[in-house]
Each structure stands twice: as C-alpha cells, then as structure tokens.
Write a structure and sequence with these properties.
The chain is an alpha/beta fold. The protein has a single domain, classed as Alpha-Beta Barrel (TIM Barrel), CATH 3.20.20. Helices cover 49% and strands 18% of the residues. The protein contains 10 helices and 10 strands. The protein has an 8-stranded parallel barrel, surrounded by 8 helices. It has a two-stranded antiparallel sheet with strand order 6-7. Helix 4 links the parallel strand 3 and strand 4. It is globular, with a radius of gyration of 17 Å.
C-alpha cells in the first residue's frame, strides 16, 4: 500500500492526526531505548504514525535500537517516518535511504534544496520500487527558517520571482511526493502552500507545543497531520497528553 494511503487509513481507523516525534533523550543507551518503547506503547492508540530523527539514530544505532523501535511500531500497527532530511548527491542519498528502508521505515523526509537530477531522483525511484513514501521539507518550524525557505528566488528560465518555499511546494507536485512538511509555527505559510498544492497532498506540520505552534491555527490553515514531540513524550502523562491533543484536533478538524 502506498504510504499516503497507509497513513490516511490509520488516521481514520484511530481517529488521529497526530504523528509522534520520538525525539527522546537519555544518557544511557538502554535507558533511551526502553523509554522510547514505553512512550510509543503508551500513546499508540492516539497517533497515526511515529517519526524518528537522527538524534535517536546516533545513540541507539540503526540496526540495533532503531530497528527494534520500528518493529515495535509495526507490531502496534503504527507507520514510521525517518526524518533524514536527505540533502546530498544521488548515490549517497540512495545508499542512506536503502538502509532506512531495509530496517522497515515506511517513509523518509528529504530536502528539495539539492534538486532532482543526480540528487533526489534515485531516492524517489527506490521508494517507488519498495512501495515506500517520500515527504519533502518545504518550510521548517524554527525561527531562522525564513533565511532559507523564505528567501526570494528567481526562475532562471523565466526570470519570475517567488519565495523558495513556493518553488519547493511546486516541486512536490512535479515529483509526485507523498506529502510535504511545513512548520506549524508558520500558519501563513501552511495556507500559502495549501493553495499551491491543492486539497489532496498531505501537509505534515511539526513544531506544535514546545516550539509555539498551535493545533487550531495549523489545522485551520490547511495542515493534514501534526508532528508533535516534547509536549507529548515529556509530559507527566504522555498517554493523557496524546489523548487530549487528539481530541482537540478532532474538535477543530474531524477526520
């Protein structure tokens, strides 16, 4: 099943638009793995997917700890996203993606800055062959994101000016991406991107809670899924926090 259909199906079955960002930290590797597994299990009923970043891959190891996490997520019927932000030449991107797909990740996030030919084309081809998903990073959630994603660029073929994130949103359509990432801290940009990509392409919005993004503003601006980390996994009661956030999201934008 295509990733876009897989996560859509899971979201409907669980009544959740929440993607858990497992950005857990701990000094000792075993403690980090156990804590991550405990959180994943406790909130699995209220999330439609789980996202892993490199800050978890580095201390746990890919073929040991992270693979265990991915397998447990699949046992819980939770799709997994690797936040690799692929941003290199083609053969390197493909090699990295192959490792992530090999251990079971259902989708990978890539940066469109490097372009298509000799960069992301091989990864998209690999993902299609393995029935995995590709998400493009269109606008990040941190304060300095405008320095890159918000800069004005000129189309060399037409001379037309536009914002960098607008170019990336159009590339997501041209490249047939399974979804795009736009920070929840930038609701105006979510709305801009939604107008570009139409209603069918999923927008994943990180930065809700700890970074200042709001559930209501992100969803009303056009976000499809909310990527939430610290305000859930760092809560005294992660399951309760996930349940409350899921309920709030459904009040604003029922699935």
């Amino acid at each position: 099943m295509l990733f876009s259909k897989l996560i859509q199906k899971n979201a409907h079955e669980r009544g959740s638009r929440i993607v858990l960002a497992l950005d857990v930290e701990a000094r000792e590797r075993r403690l980090l793995l156990n804590r991550s597994l405990k959180i994943l299990r406790s909130v699995s009923d209220y999330i439609c997917a789980a996202k892993v970043n490199r800050q978890l891959v580095l201390p746990l190891g890919l073929y040991q700890g992270v693979q265990t996490l991915v397998r447990e997520a699949h046992r819980l019927q939770v799709p997994t996203i690797m936040d690799a932000k692929l941003n290199d030449v083609g053969h390197t991107n493909e090699a990295i993606a192959r490792h992530y797909f090999k251990i079971g990740f259902d989708a990978i996030i890539a940066s469109p800055f490097v372009g298509w030919k000799g960069a992301l084309e091989p990864v998209f081809n690999l993902s299609r062959g393995m029935t995995r998903g590709m998400l493009l990073l269109v606008y990040m959630s941190h304060e300095g994101a405008a320095e890159g994603y918000g800069q004005t660029v000129i189309d060399p073929s037409t001379g037309a000016k536009s914002y960098q994130f607008e170019v990336f949103a159009k590339k997501a359509l041209d490249w047939n991406a399974d979804g795009i990432v736009v920070g929840a801290t930038q609701p105006e940009r979510i709305a801009d991107v939604r107008r570009i990509v139409g209603k069918d392409l999923a927008i994943y919005s990180p930065g809700v809670g700890a970074q200042g993004g709001e559930v209501a503003r992100a969803l009303s601006s056009g976000a499809t899924y909310l990527i939430i980390g610290r305000s859930i996994f760092a809560a005294r009661d992660p399951r309760g926090a996930a349940r409350e956030t899921c309920s709030l999201a459904n009040q604003i934008s029922p699935i």
